[in-house]
Amino acid sequence: MKQITIAVVMLFSVSVFAQTNTELKKHFETYYKEMKKQGDVRGIINAMTHLNILEPNVARKDTLAYLYLSEGQYRQALNTIGIEKNASDSDMNVEVKALALKNLNQPKMALEHYEVLFERDPNVYLAYEMADMKIQINDIEGARKNIEYGLANVTDDMKRAFYETQQPYETSMKAAFLCLKGLMTFTENKTANIDAALKLMNDALAIDPKFNLAKISRQALESQKAQNATETKN
């Protein structure tokens, strides 16, 4: 009799738990829809977090990580999906890992995921980002390959945004690649390659005379060249 009573109690508990779980799921689904309608990203994240606890789902987790990324919460994004490279990762998952690690100043780790994205869908925008990071970690040959790919496939209508000024601006993607190639050329040999790097900056500015990053880079190279000349005389 005692065993039957325990079994009935356990069955009742499971039934109540299932009912409560279903009710909670419905509540947070409704809450999610309302937050989405209001454009409340924090509310959407909160709703999705609860839904993922109640009913774990890979696609939902990827979306949650992407929302964290869009809010600049890079560590939270990576804590949600991890940093490991997995062949089964969705494109969104890989993109979140790549961008979050890049924004956390981890170019080597970010590049692992950028390479995956590039293998799946090679394009000039990814090539630029990869070349930029490879220059940072002194992978000159890797950067050269990405830049060559970019210059071979870029079209005149392609643009890239830059944010080093108070007012963000866009410039020609081809000019951006030429500027990046100039930086790579200088990094490869900071003494012998100054003139070659300056030419590339001038080529970029010939396409877009208002390209601020190319202007700044050219000024820095000219100053370095003048300093080298002074040191040689002394």
Structure, described:
This protein has eleven helices and two strands, in the order ααααααααββααα. The protein is mainly alpha-helical and 234 residues long. The protein has a two-stranded antiparallel ribbon with strand order 1-2. The protein has a domain of 113 residues: Tetratricopeptide repeat domain (Serine Threonine Protein Phosphatase 5, Tetratricopeptide repeat). Strand 1 and strand 2 form a beta hairpin. About 6% of the residues have low confidence. 76% of the residues lie in helices and 3% in strands.
Q: Top keywords for this entry?
A:
234 residues; elongated; two-stranded antiparallel ribbon; mainly alpha; Serine Threonine Protein Phosphatase 5, Tetratricopeptide repeat; 11 helices
